[in-house]
Amino acid sequence: MRPAATRRRMEAARLLREAERRTAPVEPLTTTWPGLDLADAYAVQQDNVARRLAAGSTVIGHKVGLTSVPMRELLGVHEPDFGHLLDDMVHRDGGTVRAARYCAPRVEPEICFRLVRTLRGPGVTISDVLTATDAVAPALEIVDSRIRDWRITLADTVADNAGSAGLVCGSWTPMAYAPDLAAVSVDLLVGGSRVATGSGKEVMGHPAAAVAWLANALAAYGKRLDAGYVILPGAITTAPFIGVGQKAEARFGVLGSVSVSFI
User: Fold this and answer.
1) Count of domains in the chain?
2) Are 237 and 202 in contact (CB under 8 A)?
3) Which of the 8 DSSP states describes residue 78?
4) What's the predicted TM-score (pTM) here?
């Protein structure tokens, strides 16, 4: 790789770290560096994840983003992406988080998968994912953008850990008792008012299809989905902003509910 490209990746990673630390968004990376491509973006993401691991964090899984038409339309992008979930991003169901730790947070209702077997692409199918999953749970992902005003391209959001900033999981349901995940419906409430509805089929036709996509995409980087990982397959609805004094709750019918309050 040319020295200029290496310096560009290092500087982009530094800018995102500073934006997160100071909760002060920066201009789109693709505006600052018009040549920044998807390979650069994943390298930037990996650099910042590696720094967090060196500081003591642990990877507990991955998130898939932009798997539903509403989210791709909302952000103006055209294909899925993925990011990392770390242990210091997890919040308690029914608990509180400080809004001030985020730049411009949104919430997304998702069906979280917990793997009991390793998945390694290529060639992973929906059936493989369901066999490798021991339980699912209602979840809220807190997404944030360290890019000012959410003016992101695909490369911008990939570099920014696919926007992932927090995870709240409800109670786990063993797969033996889980309903058809494509048919699961959800109501998303913010401040007690329903703001969005959707069903599992919004996520690539079936949430497990997004997990399969992830396993196959990671194969290109020589990576796999390890047993024990949790996977967020993508938002079932659009992602509303949330702020101080608001409670987000996602009601998934027979899968149960999950909530978090911002203070």
Assistant:
1) 1
2) yes
3) -
4) 0.95
User: Phi/psi zone of residue 101: left (φ > 0), alpha (ψ -120 to 50 degrees), beta?
Assistant: alpha
Could you give the CA distance from residue 231 to residue 113 in angstroms, rounded to a whole number? 5
Range of the domain at 53: 3-262
* Residue among 205, 100, 184 at smallest CA distance from 138: 184
Give bridge partners of residue 173 from the DSSP assignment. Answer: 136
Beta-carbon contacts of 88 under 8 Å, excluding residues fewer than 6 positions away, are: 52, 57
DSSP single-letter state for residue 163: G
Query: pLDDT tens track of the chain, all 263 residues?
Result: 667 788 999 999 999 999 999 999 999 999 999 999 999 999 999 999 999 999 999 999 999 998 877 667 766 777 789 999 999 999 999 999 999 999 999 999 999 999 999 999 999 999 999 999 999 999 999 999 999 999 998 999 999 999 999 999 999 999 999 999 999 999 999 999 999 999 999 999 999 999 999 999 999 999 999 999 999 999 999 999 999 999 999 999 999 999 999 99
Place of tokens 């509180």: 96
Which residue, among 183, 176, 168, has the nearest Cα to 236 in the 3D structure? 183
Q: What CATH number did the domain enclosing 87 receive? A: 3.90.850.10
